[in-house]
Amino acid sequence: MCLLITKPRGIHIPDDYLYSGYEINSHGAGFAIAKDNKVQIHKGFFTFESFLKAYKKMTEDQELPALIHFRLATSGYKDKDNCHPFQVGPYAMGHNGIINSLSDSYIKSDTRLLADKLHYAIKDVPDLLDDPTFLENLEEFIGYNKIAFLRPDGDFIILHEKAGSWDGGVWYSNGGYKSRRMPGNYTEESSCSLPVTRNKSHFCKGSGCFKLLRSQTDIETGYCVHCATNHLVVTVQEDEAWYENRVSFWENRTKKCTVENCDGTCTNCQEHFNGIIMEEASKDNFTIDYENI
To answer: How far is CA 94 from the centre of its chain?
Structure first.
C-alpha cells in the first residue's frame, strides 16, 4: 500500500499519524526536505524510532517542508536503495501504488526504475516537470498511482492529488495515517511498549507473519496492523516448547542485528525469523489453518 505525505513549511504532523504510517508500511521509511534552495534526502530507516528521531531533528525544529514516505514493498529488495524518496534531477520523488509495467525487477523496485528514467530525462530537459503536457502524460502512464515531487524551493507537484486527501494542511496519499495510535508509554529510545519477558500472546497470528506485537491494542486482537488491515487470520496449534523457542529467539536476535537501534522488528530480523517459522511449520508439532474474515 505505502503512504506518501507532503508537509508544507511550518505545518506539524501528529506523531500518531507518522507511527500509523510506519506500522502499516514497515519495509523502510524516508523523507526529503527543502533547505537553502536544495533538496536533501534521508532514507533507509527500518525502525520507527530511528525515523522519528531523524525526522524531528531535520524538519520539526526548523519547520521545513518535507516529503515523507513509508514503504510496503511489492517489488525489489527491502533495502535502503529502494526506500523513497528518490533523487530526480534537483527534485525528490515519492510514489504510492504499483506500476505494473515496471514491477518485474527482483532487485530494483518499480518506483526506483521510474525515478532512474526521470532523473536522466530531467538531465536532458531541466524544466521537464514544468511542462503541463508532460505531467499529464506521466499521470496517464502511472494510472491510479500517486506521485509527489518536492522542489528545491519547498513547493510540491502532486500527481492524482484528488485521489489522496488534505488534513490539517498536509496531503496524504491514503487513509493509512489514521489507523493506529502510538502506545501511551512510547519513547524514542525504544518503540516497544512491552516488558522484556514476552509470552505467546505477544506475537502476531497472521499467516506467515508472527511479528512481535508492540501495542496493547494489537495484543488484544492478536494481529499486527498489516495483517489486521489485510484480513489475514491464522489459527495456530502448537506446544509450549515451540513458543518458548520463539520467545527466546526474539529476545536474543538483536544481538546479531547490524541495523542501528534495532528493536527486533527490522526487515532483516523479520525475514530471518519468518524463515525459521516456516521451517518449524513443516514439523508435526503444530498445524496452520487459514481463513478469511
So the answer is: 12
